[in-house]
Amino acid sequence: MQGQMQDRPLLISSLIDFAERFHGDGEIVSRRVEGDIHRYTYADAAVRARQVANALDRLDLAAGSRVGTLAWNGYRHFELYYGVSGSGRILHTINPRLHPEQVAWIINHAEDEALCFDLTFLPIIKAIHAACRRVRQWVILCDRDAVPADTGIPGLLSYEDWIAGEATSYDWPDLDEDSAACLCYTSGTTGNPKGVLYSHRSSVLHAYAAAMPDVMCLSARDSVLPVVPMFHVNAWGIPYTAAATGCKLVFPGPALDGKSVYELMEAEKVTFAAGVPTVWQMLLGHMQQHGLRFSTLNRTVIGGSACPPAMISAFKDTYGVTVLHAWGMTEMSPLGTLCTLKNKHLALPPEEQLKILCTQGRPVFGVDMKIVDDAGHALPHDGVAQGELLVRGPWIVREYFKGEGGDPLIDGWFPTGDVATIDADGYLHITDRSKDVIKSGGEWISSIDVENIAMAHPAVAMAACLGMRHPKWDERPVIVVVKKPDAELTREQLLAFFLGKLSKWQIPDDVIFVDAIPLGATGKMQKIKLREQLAGYTLPGL
Ligand code: ADP
Fold first, then answer.
1. Listed GO molecular functions (predicted)?
2. Fewer CB near the terminus (10 Å): N or C of the chain?
3. What average pLDDT does this structure show over 136-159?
């Protein structure tokens, strides 16, 4: 027997319709590339998203055509999120921090037919536009007056001109909820970028899930600042969840330095923020230097790479801000797990609670996960056994765009490439990426554990642990360290700092001081590049 409930598709257009009708006066504040602050409401955004849809119809872009964006977090990008996907085209967000050649490669691979970009990225577009032969319309996200003369880009339109004459009404099509809505390429930390094609259904389900209390717990009373870019897995879904909850949205534009982010947070009474650890490093550095405090921020999601425990403590103890440590992937839209305590943990002493809060947290309802050994056998969820992490669920990739790389699934499960333990309550602890685990004398050393300890040293600004070839032990760990400005730290002092915190054999054999550790396009440490920079290095005593 069938259920007898209505069958309404889950569509991205319904999110903006909802926000317009029930949170029409909800504010969206953006720092623009032009430098000023722009303010308007969900109702205004909905009107302009419909104008975008009409402008795309005028271009005669078929359903399913790709529209690329190369843009910071801002209101025009938000309008494109809804105008493009809502009208049945596919929004393709591109990471502008990639090398221009890679940007061109991705535009061509995605077969983008229109491309909208911020003024900041004009030099990139100037360099690559001739190589992007499928793009029929280039749109620069500013007023006509702000478009520089003689860009050399044929037919370039300013965004404001592009949508200005368009009707403000539009009938969003009744799409199949499984049709494609957005395309996002993996950042390629582990190889060539591959496209992940989200559907309307997967994005809307993810938006519901992200709002849940033990996930982001967003509400109409929040003021939300995604520092995580709208080109990094759709700012972790916040533009969708925001419309579903009616929270105030605060977009930081291109100004991601500690001072700018702090000032925007204070001015706009931000209660909730989200970003990768390296961004918060800059913010905390600025606040420490100037003795600043938050007046309204009470929680922040940190993910994308392991959040060092020292950062979680600093937020909590010094600033009264709860860190929600999250784990996910481009292939997972991206939310997989997020860390909050359970009732039974509330009576634990603070050190015990901290231990739990440093894990990557429990699965969000909708995400199923398991760990397996080398032979693919499921391992127990006892918090001890570690193995490769596999996931499945309605917002997890089934196959990559254009079938790239073949069938990625193993019996219906997606292998994440991460190594983890899971405890009886479902708390996930990521030990490492499988390729970063250090194998020493048949035992595994977690590079994340070693880095977290180094990061707790007051003189350390950033730390990366690498396994170096060793004739007897296979590999031995070394720690590569960037010191804080003006801090004093010797090799011996840092090695002594590990004593008692790790088993002796897990302590790095050497400390390498460097001026900077290379960061990838999403702010993660690039160990492959770092390794290249250290070519020729030999372990002490060899
Ligand atoms: P890419 O895989 O191209 O770097 P993603 O942004 O999709 O791009 O990265 C996903 C990976 O990032 C995960 O598989 C995991 O290795 C790492 N990661 C994400 N969040 C965390 C976290 N909280 N702790 C440890 N690793 C994390």
1. ligase activity
2. N
3. 96
